[in-house]
Amino acid sequence: MIKRIFSGGPFEPKVGYCRAVVAGDWIHMSGTVCGTDHETGEDTLDPVRQCEGALKIIEKALNEAGASFADTVRVTYVLPDAAEFEACWPALRAAFGDNPPAAMMTEAGLIDPRFRIEIEVTAYKPRA
């Protein structure tokens, strides 16, 4: 069984993808960015605020798939400036807590230069 989860983001229909695909016990999450501060609703260039926003979008999709950050087995971080990654570590530790996934960080350009971090996760949630 395959289930597709959409977040309603503007790039989903433009590019032709969904936020996540649940395939059996596996949850494959698309790369997620967030250029909006979730508290103020305004655009932000702060990589930490963008990281926190992307994590909220990811958490919502994981929950919709019946999972949580504790079920994440792999995460990839992409930043246009690797020097900005360390400032995001506290938010990432808070999200993954005692269940850290295997991880990788790479430096590369993102779809929009205003985006400072993109996060992709894979989770495993055995059916009950």
From TrEMBL:
- Superkingdom per UniProt: Bacteria
A Pfam family this protein belongs to? Ribonuc_L-PSP
Q: Signal sequence: where?
A: none
Q: Which Gene3D superfamilies does the UniProt entry name for this protein?
A: RutC-like (3.30.1330.40)
Q: Provide the species name.
A: Litoreibacter ponti
Q: What is this protein called?
A: Enamine deaminase RidA (YjgF/YER057c/UK114 family)
